[in-house]
Write a structure and sequence with these properties.
202 residues, alpha+beta, four-stranded mixed beta sheet, three-stranded mixed beta sheet, 31% helix, rod-shaped
Length: 202
Amino acid sequence: MLRYLKSREFWLTILGLILLGVLAYVLLFYVFLPSYTQHGESVLVPEVIEKSMDEAIAELEERDLRYQVADSIFISNLEPGSIISQDPGGMSKVKPGRRIYLTVNKHVPPLVRIPEIFNVSTYQAKLLLEGAGLKIKKIEYIPDEFKNLVRYGEYKGERVRPGDTLPKFSELTLFAGKGLGSQRVGIPDLVGLNYLEAISQL
């Protein structure tokens, strides 16, 4: 046994195993793993915010990137179907095939309920409507003893009631009281009239 350990054949075997191990290491870490993980390869994520869905998809696929719609919300001042946000952001470096998560602007605004805005002040009604995602288009004043008290409302000429649903960001016309004493009228001359005639004139 000792003679074999000192023999040339033994050391050639050891040398062969060492070379084989080095070769396996090189192939594993410098050939197979970089190829599998696409080591060193990256693509620049395009900026697709405010672009249409079709434009965004075309730009992502052109750079070998995938996409997924992660959420959709409604923003009134953006084009329906346009991209609101993306993750990772534009100009980020990622590996080919990476999934980009998109938030898209809805085509139709969500429906919201009209709150209890009647028989409250115009100021309170404004706060309640804004909290519900609605707006006041204008306030029209009608004869009523309670000044600035909202009596009813309309949407596109139709009366609405608390609990009715409207598209978010809709604008309502409110009708509020003028209050007593907002108009002046002349007092008729009652001298010489009998009681019934005077009542009629008044």
